[in-house]
UniProtKB/TrEMBL annotation:
Database matches in InterPro entries: AhpC, AhpC/TSA, Peroxiredoxin, Peroxiredoxin_AhpC-typ, Peroxiredoxin_C, Thioredoxin-like_sf, Thioredoxin_domain
A GO term, aspect molecular function: NADH-dependent peroxiredoxin activity
Species name: Pseudoalteromonas espejiana
Subunit annotation: Homodimer; disulfide-linked, upon oxidation. 5 homodimers assemble to form a ring-like decamer.
The name this protein goes by in its record: Alkyl hydroperoxide reductase C
Active site: C49 (cysteine sulfenic acid (-soh) intermediate)
Family: Belongs to the peroxiredoxin family. AhpC/Prx1 subfamily.
EC number(s) given by UniProt: 1.11.1.26
PROSITE patterns to which the protein is assigned, alphabetical: THIOREDOXIN_2
Keywords: Antioxidant, Cytoplasm, Disulfide bond, Oxidoreductase, Peroxidase, Redox-active center
Length: 189
């Protein structure tokens, strides 16, 4: 039986990432103070992974405008991330940090490690500026994610964080009506 990580804080970590041509150190302290996405995937030089990472790269500028930093994470090393970035046109367009987690410590702390394979499930985690996990999405290895839908989820999380007492209904988009839960709504939706 698993326990949800929703509303828990990111665990301490230190790792090296490949980011814009350099190797940079990243820790949980870098996550605090802004919205963040941790985007786990199984492995570099594979099949579904580059489609997801490329899709996310296409939405990265929009996420940055929303005050969100993206961190992709796999159990590969930062050296492997650089090699993949340098040899793949799709991965070459990535400008967000690509964290190497060869020990699996970060992957395990988010509960997405496949121990028998030493790989991560396709796990997406959205954190608020306090480092609390607000959105979790986990997929089996063969099911790719949608960056467009991830943007919508971040927009909803940011909206409810600044609008106390309101909630976003299914498929909510910015500018649409939200709900204010009350006894008056029970059984009327």
């Amino acid at each position: 039986m698993s326990t949800s990580l929703i509303n828990t804080k990111i665990q301490p970590f230190n790792a090296t990432a490949y980011h814009n041509g350099d190797f940079v150190e990243v820790s949980e302290k870098d996550v605090l103070g802004k919205w963040s996405i941790f985007f786990f995937y199984p492995a570099d030089f594979t099949f579904v992974c580059p489609t997801e990472l490329g899709d996310l790269a296409d939405y990265y500028a929009q996420l940055q405008e929303m005050g969100v930093e993206v961190y992709s994470v796999s159990t590969d090393t930062h050296f492997t991330h650089k090699a993949w970035h340098d040899t793949s046109d799709t991965i070459g367009k990535i400008t967000y940090p690509m964290i190497g987690d060869p020990t699996g410590r970060i992957t395990r702390s988010f509960g997405v490690m496949i121990e028998e394979e030493g790989l991560a499930l396709r796990g997406t985690f959205v954190m608020n500026p306090e480092g609390e996990i607000k959105v979790i999405e986990t997929h089996d290895l063969g099911i790719g994610r949608s960056a467009k839908e991830l943007v919508r989820k971040v927009q909803a999380a940011q909206y409810i964080a600044t609008h106390d007492g309101e909630v976003c209904p299914a498929s909510w988009q910015p500018g649409e009506d939200t709900l204010a839960p009350s006894l008056d709504l029970v059984g009327k939706i």
